[in-house]
Amino acid sequence: RAHRRAMSPAGLGLRAALLCLLAWAGLPAADRLYIHPFHMLVYSKSSCEQLEKPSGEAPPDPTFTPVPIQAKTSPVDEEALREQLVLAAQKLQGEDKMRVATVGMLLNFMGFRMYKTLTETQAAAGGAVFSPTALFGTLTSFYLGAQDPTAGRLQAFLGVPGEDQSCTSRLDGHKVLSALQTIQGLLVLQGGAGGQARLLLSTVLGLFTAPGLRLKQPFVGGLAPFAPVTLPRSLDLSTDPQLAAEKINRFMQAVTGWKMGSPLQEVSPDSNLIFNAQVHFQGQMKGFSLLAGPREFWVDNATSVAVPMLSGTGTFPHWSDPQRNLSLTRVPLSANVGLLLVQPHDAAALPEVETLTFQHDLLTWTKNLAPRAMRLTMPQLALRGSYDLQDLLAQAKLATLLGAEASLGRISDGHLRVGQVLNSVLFELKAEKGEQPTEPAPQPTGPEALEVTLDRPFLFAIQDQDSTALHFLGRVANPLSMA
């Protein structure tokens, strides 16, 4: 506990900032204007003066043509990406804490909303893995490249109301992406400290353009806090849309080494820009070991699959609610990051429990957790999920937001036609000691020890307690299948 208390002054400051935000959220609308928390994310007066200079005084943005997709590209160094994120989190101080707390709150709201949309578009029996941070970063990236009216619509969708049409109520996309980088840094910051296993989080972005399309350098450079590896590449998107998709999938796998399956089936033949963000998370569960031999996981009452299972013994925060028909357990992955596991008491009730969990209830429920001695057994996870944001926007009745008429003049002077906007996730959770099978750990002593076995479909989330951001949300329906 002493380590937790001394761990992070930044974390304490963030919690104070979050209390301010929650107080703001509870105020009557008329009072909110005076202490509006979003002022940390909008343009300052000095920035506005610079932006509002007559266009004749400002030189045009430099542009470049992306190199062909077959150009030699170095593989991604995930360790270097982790170090960059750690550095961003270590610099956290002053008003940045409020900024991080605000972005954490916004991305949680957005994450819950779009997770619901995602699960409505996918088969209920399948799995799901979703990154609210990747989604928020993707939308902010497009905001960075947008002009009005698209910029105003994206700002509203991100959850920041424009109080009026003035510059100082406009979202500063650079501030948002910088806060997002710090939030990602807080996820990996404590891993490796105090005997904890290290966490990895890497984001790689491919910007695929039709030949001849020029991109603006300030836009591409501005994406670095969200995706430090951003790879603009050109290829023929129109002649053979399936071949173009295969080339993009092969390119991304060659650069990252991540086995994502084939997230892209076919590109839109009339598009000239494909946005492809891929995220890799790897966590190790301290004190957990891989059980000898595969164990049964029941996909439904009649079907089971044999999967590798992890088991660990200890005292974990736990809460069981018969009224809501669920149990919640928090497994620490580092000093400030927890794996939240939600298990329906009745497997058939998973859809109802999922609806309850991935609203705003999950964050409230964590306050009910109390320490409980238990032996926890769960599947080793290697989940893959991919979706096209254009599909989610269409489902949310926002199909035109990034459509043919979108004003994206800060990305390119050419007429942009945005095709697929992909977010793909590879989510891995392993035993601390790797994959050497070991015998089950001994049962905790005492009559209170609880046996918790996740051998039926369940829900999970990864939360950083310092920013309260939910980095991943998901449903494990079959540990062996792709989401």
Automatic annotation (TrEMBL):
PROSITE patterns: SERPIN. One of its GO terms (cellular component) is extracellular space. It is found in: Secreted. InterPro entries: Angiotensinogen, Serpin_CS, Serpin_dom, Serpin_fam, Serpin_sf, Serpin_sf_1, Serpin_sf_2. Residues 1-30 form the signal peptide. Keywords: Disulfide bond, Glycoprotein, Secreted, Signal, Vasoactive, Vasoconstrictor. Transmembrane segments: none annotated. One of its GO terms (biological process) is positive regulation of angiotensin-activated signaling pathway. GO terms for molecular function: growth factor activity; hormone activity; serine-type endopeptidase inhibitor activity; type 1 angiotensin receptor binding; type 2 angiotensin receptor binding. Residues 112-479 form the Serpin domain. Pfam families: Serpin. Essential component of the renin-angiotensin system (RAS), a potent regulator of blood pressure, body fluid and electrolyte homeostasis. Stimulates aldosterone release. Belongs to the serpin family. PANTHER family: ANGIOTENSINOGEN, SERINE PROTEASE INHIBITOR, SERPIN. This is Angiotensinogen. It comes from Myotis lucifugus. The lineage of its organism: Eukaryota, Metazoa, Chordata, Craniata, Vertebrata. The gene is AGT.
